[in-house]
Every structure is written in C-alpha cells, then in structure tokens.
Specification:
The N terminus is likely disordered. The chain is an alpha/beta fold. It is globular. The protein has 2 domains: 141 residues, 3-Layer(aba) Sandwich (Rossmann fold); 243 residues, 2-Layer Sandwich (Dihydrodipicolinate Reductase, domain 2), CATH 3.30.360. The chain is 32% helix and 24% strand. Helix 5 packs antiparallel against helix 10 and helix 8 packs across helix 10. The longest helix has 20 residues. It has a 9-stranded mixed β-sheet with strand order 16-15-14-13-7-12-11-8-17. It has a 6-stranded parallel β-sheet with strand order 3-2-1-4-5-6, with helices on both faces. It has a two-stranded antiparallel ribbon with strand order 9-10. The two termini are 23 Å apart. It binds alpha-L-sorbopyranose.
C-alpha cells in the first residue's frame, strides 16, 4: 500500500530524466480511457514513482476517434486494430478500456505477448471467462491489475486500516448501495457508443457487473470472503430500440439488483444497486457495524469517514466526522495541504502510483485478476440466485 512507498533517489536533479519509461498502449478511447490517461499523465507530478508512463499508442475502432483522443491526451501514435497494438514491441503495458465483451480476448492476447495488463472492471463477462484470464496472466507471469478505483479513495483506504487495526472488533453487518438514475427513460436506446452498458451481449450484465461489482470488490477487501448470496433482479424497461440494428429488442440486463449475503467471518451483508433511483447520479455508500465501532462512507462526500467508537467517554460519545485530508492519511501527503480536497480522478492516479511501485518491486497490485475473479464469482452467484429464486453458494476461486 501507499505507506510502503520510498523516496526515489532517481528523482534528484531533473525529476523525470532517469525514470524508466513504461510504454502504455490504451485500448478503448471512451470515459474510462480518459480517467486512465489522466492518471498516467499526472502520476509523476505528484508521486515519486519509479517509472514514467509514456502514452505510446491509443486504439479505437474509428480512426477519427483514435486521432481525436490521441491529440487531446498526447498519445504518440494510434491504432484501429487492438491486435496490432499488442503486437508492437514498443508497448510494455496494455490498458483495456474497451467494453466488457472484449476484455477476455484482449487480456489473454496481451498476456501471451508478455505485456503487463491493466483491465477495467468488471474483469469479465462471467466466471468462465474470468478463469481463462487469470490463467493467462498467471501462466505468462505478467503484472496484472483491475481498476476497482474506489479502494483508493483515501477515506476508504483509511477504513481498511481501521478494520485491520481491530478498532471495529467483530463485524456484524456490512451494507452497501450504488444508486443511479440515468436509464429511467424508456426512450433511451441500448447498444453502441456510450450505451453498450444496456446491451447484455456487450456488458454481460446490468448494474450487477457495472455497479455492484464495485461494492463487492470493496466489501471483500474490507470484510473478507462472501460465502453465500440470495439475490433479486428486475428489468423495468423490457424493450429498447437497439442503436446498431435500429430494431426494438428485448432488454436482457438487470436494471436493479439487491442481494443478501453471509460473509465467512459470520457477518451479514445487504447490497442494493439500481439505475432507477430518481435523484441519484452516483451514490455509492457503505456502512459497517462492528462490536466496538461502526464506520460509514459516502462517495458524494468522499473525504469524510463517519466513525462511531463505543469506547469513547459516554458523555461525548457520538458519530465522529473524520475529514480525511491530513498528510498522515492515506495518499494525502502527495497532494495539497491538510484540509484541501481531491476527487474521483485522483483514485486512478493512486492506482497507477501503486502499480508502478509494485512493478519495480516485482509485487502484485491489488486487485489482481485473481482478486477480481472473487468479485466475479459473487456477481455470477447473485445473478444465478435471482434466476433460480434460491440461495447460492459462492464458488471459491
Ligand atoms: C456507470 O454509469 C459508471 O460509469 C460505471 O461504469 C463506473 O464503474 C462507476 O464508477 C460510475 O458509474
């Protein structure tokens, strides 16, 4: 984690001169391509990273999009065929920001070509594909990580530290929500640029893989393995026009999903996600109740970690609102001065900083493909449970 980072002696004098380049090949020039490109560009300005990411090539199916993206972010070259990008000897790391149905094929090819692989979440369309991807990166022995970025919100990393220090004691409850409202209109088409998340053939699932996967990744990280789940899903708008075929077609994604679960540590979990919660754009919250203390976090106020400690003097006991900006808080010493804030995009910078450090030390960067496979196993079990109307055991991975 961030605290293990050592000052880099190479950064004296010209700070960039001696840094080893790491040539990035980015596949997919959409929203996630932007968050990652920004992170590669910023990381050396704020972190003493042992490598300098070089934006070597970006790849999109449309040459016009690739050129536009390359021009804006400063990529040296473009490709329109991802296989050509992977075949290039001047690419060290392949970053997959393409839609979910392409993750497996690209990741496996990149691993076989000996490239480091950074993959957007969710890992795969399903567990079977996920296993193939894990096998490929582990067999090739290449560095790999999945961009579950919310782990690296400083307040969320602090929550991990508080739990590990034993301050919460035995955990009884884990509750998480990820609520949005952008698909309520029945006129919204499915498929194509920007709307592939509504097309199950491309996304694999709806809110389960897109939003709950974030909640599950954080939950497993903070509270351990999930053993069994009972889920329910709903598709509120049953048919939408498909952007590519022009036809009105059935919708196969889950618009909403809620599930109960049992963690191996004996605690109970309650998770909900929807794109039909009018008024919520990206409300990710979690609350954890332990024997000695509780914590709460809300993406809309991402620096704040609410903390209740039963050990406090009863006369002043209450929820403390910890503002996670001090320089001794996770990641914060790299940014501004205590009290000043960072945002969503910085979580990706933190991920790159950790990845570069770990790469230099030959260590894995969590979540690795194998870590993300555990999240995939829970997603698959939740969807199976909803289909079969019964509790499902989560396959250990
Ligand atoms: C969907 O709207 C989305 O952009 C997800 O794909 C991201 O993973 C999430 O962080 C925000 O919402």
């Amino acid at each position: 984690m961030e605290e293990t980072r050592k000052p880099n002696p190479n950064r004296e004098g010209d700070p960039m001169a001696d840094l080893k380049p790491l040539n990035i090949g980015l596949i997919g020039c959409g929203f996630m391509g932007r968050t990652h490109s920004n992170a590669y560009k910023r990381v050396n300005d704020f972190f003493d990273a042992p490598y300098r990411p070089v934006l070597k090539a970006c790849c999109a199916r449309s040459e016009e999009n690739a050129r536009h993206f390359a021009g804006r972010w400063g990529y040296e070259s473009i490709e329109t065929d991802w296989r050509k990008l992977i075949a290039r000897r001047d690419i060290d790391a392949v970053d997959i920001c393409a839609p979910n149905n392409m993750h497996a094929e690209i990741a496996i090819a990149a691993a076989q070509a000996g490239k480091a692989v950074l993959c957007e979440k969710p890992l795969a369309m399903n567990l079977v594909q996920g296993h193939q991807m894990v096998d490929a990166v582990e067999k090739a022995g290449v560095a790999n990580t999945v961009w579950y970025n919310y782990r690296r919100v400083p307040a969320v990393t602090l929550a991990k530290q508080l739990i590990e220090s034993g301050r919460l004691g035995r955990i009884f409850h884990y509750r998480a929500n990820f609520l949005q409202d952008w698909t309520i209109s029945a006129d919204l088409p499915q498929g194509g640029t920007g709307l592939w998340r509504l097309d199950a053939d491309v996304s694999g699932s709806g809110v389960t893989g897109d939003l709950l996967a974030h909640c599950i990744d954080t939950a497993i990280w903070l509270n351990g393995h999930i053993g069994s789940v009972a889920g329910m899903t709903e598709t509120f708008v049953k048919e939408r026009r498909h952007n590519l075929t022009g036809k009105v077609q059935p919708v196969h994604i889950d618009d909403a999903c809620a599930f109960l679960c049992r963690f191996d540590n004996g605690s109970l979990g309650l998770f909900e996600s929807t794109r039909y919660a009018r008024g919520h754009k990206a409300l990710y919250t979690f609350e954890i109740n332990g024997e000695k203390a509780s914590i709460k976090w809300d993406l809309h106020d991402l620096h704040r970690l609410e903390y209740f400690d039963h050990g406090d003097d009863s006369l002043v006991r209450g929820w403390r609102s910890v503002h996670v900006t001090d320089s001794d808080m996770p990641y914060m010493k790299h940014w501004w001065v205590p009290g000043l804030q960072i945002g969503y995009e910085h979580t990706f910078v933190h991920h790159v900083a950790d990845f570069l450090d770990n790469l230099a030390m030959g260590q894995p960067t969590a979540p690795t493909f194998r870590d993300a496979l555990a999240t995939q196993a829970v997603c698959d079990a939740v969807l199976d449970s909803a289909d079969h109307h019964k509790w499902e055991t989560v396959v250990p991975v």
